[in-house]
Amino acid sequence: MLPKVLKVLFVLLIVKPLVFIALGLNVINRDKLPVSGPAVLAANHNSHLDTLVLLALFPISQVHKVRPVAAADYFLSNRFVSWLSLNVIGIIPIKRMHSGADKDKLFDECHRALRDNDILLVFPEGSRGEPEVMSGLKKGIYHLVSEYDKCPVLPVVMRGLGLSLPKGTAMFVPFNCDVVVGEPLDAFENSDAFLTDMQAAYESLTKHCVTQVL
Q1: Spatial distance between the Cα atoms of 173 and 206, rounded to a whole number of angstroms
Q2: How far is C-alpha 188 from the chain's CA centre?
Q3: Staple 175 to which of 82, 164, 169, 210, CB 3.0 to 4.6 Å?
Q4: What is the pTM for the complete model shown?
C-alpha cells in the first residue's frame, strides 16, 4: 500500500509539474493510451525523462498500474536509487538480455504484472541512444507478449527529450517535445514480423512530430 501512495504522490507533485510546466509538451493521440492492462507501451529511448513523461500522461487514478521496465544493473546500482526505483517509481528491474539467457525467467516479473492487468512501459531499443536517433529494435517485447492472445503493444515516438536531458548529463534544458501514441498492435506472427511492423509504426508516427530538431 505504501509504494502505491508514494508513487501517486511522486507523480502528482513532482512528475506532472515537471513534465507539463517545465517542458513544452505536445501530445498527439493521447486518447489511444490504454485504460487498463494487460498492455505494453513501446517507446523510443533517448533520455531519463522518457519514463517520467510516459507516467505523466496517465490519470493519477491509474498511474499505480503503470510499471516501467528498466535495466537492473543501472537502477539497482546503489541503495538510494534502488529504493527510489522500486518503491516510488515502481520499476520492474530486468537483467539485460544476453546470448543463452532464459527468456522465461528473464520476464517472470513482467508476466506477473501483465497477469495483474498492469501496463508496462518498455523501450525496445534496450538502452538510451544518441539524442533523437533511433537505434535498432530488440525482440524482447515479442517474446514477452507472444504467449498472450490479446496484449496490445502501442508504439510511442518521443522527440525532443534527448535534448532536454541527454545521456551522460544531469543538466535539464527546457525544450519543446512531442509524444505521439500509435494504434495498438496485437498480432505478430513471429519476431521478424514484430520488428518489421514496429519499425513501420515508428516511421509513420515520426511524421506526426511537429518539433524541429536540428
Answers
A1: 22
A2: 20
A3: 164
A4: 0.88
Q: Express each pLDDT in 53-96 by its tens digit.
A: 999 999 999 999 999 998 887 778 889 889 988 999 999 998 76
- 1-207 — its CATH code? 3.40.1130.10
Of residues 111, 46, 58, 120, the one with CA closest to residue 90: 120
- Secondary structure (3-state) at 42: strand
Cis peptide before 166, with omega less than 30 degrees from 0? no
Q: Domain residues of the chain, as ranges? A: 1-207
Q: Which three cell numbers stand for residue 8?
A: 501517486
Q: What are the beta bridge partners of residue 68?
A: 121
Q: What is the pLDDT of residues 151-196, one digit of tens each?
A: 999 999 998 887 766 666 666 666 778 999 999 998 788 889 888 9
**Whole-angstrom distance, CA of residue 173 vs CA of residue 31:** 28
Residue-level length of the chain? 214
Compute the Cα dihedral for 135, 136, 140, 145 and give only its sign.
positive
Calpha distance 160→201 (Å, rounded):
19
187, 198 Cβ separation under 8 angstroms: no
